[in-house]
């Protein structure tokens, strides 16, 4: 139409076509060819590699995880992006908020993986997620006062569930001695020196203390000078399996039970010595995939928000105002007007993220620890492991690559058709 000679157009297109062929067409063609050969590349095996793709347990786990990724990650990121875009539209500091939400996009997948590997650290002193979770837990459930403490002699026996009971029954007026060891120095803190309980007629008394003298010495089972009291320990009196009385030790380690405790055995419940709550195993086999998806959403929710906010800016305001004038509340305006008008943008964001998660690799490889890596496996990671891992078989790796391409193609075709319809409008 413009009178351009064909050979001139070909000269201009040739560099682009050469790059396209070298970087796209040739790798795809060679991967298809290589998928029909064995690990050495010399023996033709037909479709055996594809058979292994659908029968190998690790690859099936990777496929299942990819399905979870495709369904959950794009949906959650798009939904959050929509909520952020709509809620910040009328807020003065909306631009600053959008900037903060979008900032993770400037971080590479590798850096984000390292960040969230630390966030999900099991130790609450290092991992932010467990630090918050443990803080919330300890707000409603008091931690054990002396985790790990245990008896030192035969005066106390270990009962079911980790509790400790006296060997014999106690008598009113005769103080009971309940010595323990194994208390961590940090749990003692500013504990007072233990003192022997006084006998009180008609009542059961006693002392719970740390039966350990610094520098050695002292008499086991006896309160020696300098030995520390264990305050805040719950003591129960049990008769025939029923708790008849209970008390909590004072700061000096002493306790007093009513006359109903006479002839009962004393029990120190396991709750006194339970280990401190250590949070959730975020990167354990059951939660590793949702945890990694959370890291992905943290990165890509800002991307979705920016695109949806751009689409929201082009929505005719008169339609929104007309809906409000007709009596629609804000939720109805959002659900029946805003979302339908944003549908094309939401589809673009959703499809883009679906293509992106189908080839997710970096986050899974960095965040998942070795013990949970198989449970967090995805196709792109399995492709790498099959091709370059310990069991090198580039035939199987090529088959996974072809299968991954087949999974991506329908999503790409839907996107292309949508783009063509947009152009026709």
UniProtKB/TrEMBL annotation:
Domain of life according to the entry: Bacteria
UniProt domain ABC transmembrane type-1: residue ranges: 63-415
Predominant place of localization: membrane
PROSITE patterns (UniProt xref): ABC_TM1
The keyword Transport belongs to this UniProt entry's keyword annotation: yes
Transmembrane segments: 7-28, 67-87, 99-120, 295-316, 337-358, 396-416
Signal peptide range: none
Bilayer topology: Multi-pass membrane protein
Subcellular location: Cell membrane
Tagged with keyword Membrane: yes
Family, per entry: Belongs to the binding-protein-dependent transport system permease family.
Name the UniProt record assigns to this protein: Sugar ABC transporter permease
Organism encoding this protein: Streptomyces blastmyceticus
């Amino acid at each position: 139409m413009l009178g351009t000679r064909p050979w001139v157009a070909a000269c201009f297109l040739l560099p682009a076509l050469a790059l396209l062929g070298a970087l796209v067409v040739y790798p795809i063609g060679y991967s298809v060819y290589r998928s029909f050969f064995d690990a050495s590349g010399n023996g033709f095996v037909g479709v055996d590699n594809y058979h292994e793709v659908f029968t190998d347990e690790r690859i099936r786990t990777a496929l299942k995880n990819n399905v979870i990724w495709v369904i959950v990650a794009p949906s959650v990121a798009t939904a959050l992006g929509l909520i952020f875009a709509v809620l910040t539209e009328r807020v003065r500091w909306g631009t600053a908020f959008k900037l903060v939400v979008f900032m993770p996009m400037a971080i590479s997948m590798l850096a984000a993986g390292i960040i969230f590997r630390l966030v999900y650290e099991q130790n609450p002193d290092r991992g932010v997620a467990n630090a918050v979770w443990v803080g919330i837990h300890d707000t409603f459930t008091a931690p054990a006062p002396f985790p790990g403490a245990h008896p030192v002699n035969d005066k106390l026996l270990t009962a079911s569930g980790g509790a400790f009971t006296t060997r014999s029954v106690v008598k009113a007026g005769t103080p009971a001695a309940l010595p323990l060891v194994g208390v961590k120095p940090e749990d003692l803190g500013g504990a007072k020196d233990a003192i022997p309980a006084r006998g009180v007629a008609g009542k059961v008394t006693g002392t719970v203390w740390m039966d350990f003298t610094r520098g050695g010495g002292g008499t086991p089972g006896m309160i020696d000078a300098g030995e520390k009291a264990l305050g805040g320990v719950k003591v129960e009196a049990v008769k025939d399996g029923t708790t008849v009385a209970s008390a909590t030790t004072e700061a000096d380690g002493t306790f007093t039970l009513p006359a109903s405790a006479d002839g009962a055995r004393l029990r120190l419940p396991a709750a006194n010595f339970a280990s401190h709550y250590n949070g959730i195993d975020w990167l354990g086999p059951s939660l590793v995939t949702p945890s990694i998806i959370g890291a992905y959403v943290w990165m890509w929710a800002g991307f979705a928000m920016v695109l949806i906010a751009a689409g929201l800016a082009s929505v005719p305001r008169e339609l929104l105002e007309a809906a409000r004038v007709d009596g629609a509340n804000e939720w109805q305006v959002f659900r029946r007007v805003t979302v339908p008008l944003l549908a094309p943008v939401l589809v673009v964001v959703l499809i883009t993220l679906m293509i992106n998660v189908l080839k997710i690799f970096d986050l899974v490889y960095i965040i998942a620890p070795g013990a949970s890596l198989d449970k967090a496996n995805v196709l792109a990671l399995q492709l790498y492991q099959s091709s370059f891992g310990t069991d090198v078989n580039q035939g199987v790796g090529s088959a996974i690559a072809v299968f991954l391409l087949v999974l991506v193609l329908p999503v790409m075709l839907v996107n292309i058709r949508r783009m063509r319809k947009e152009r026709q409008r």
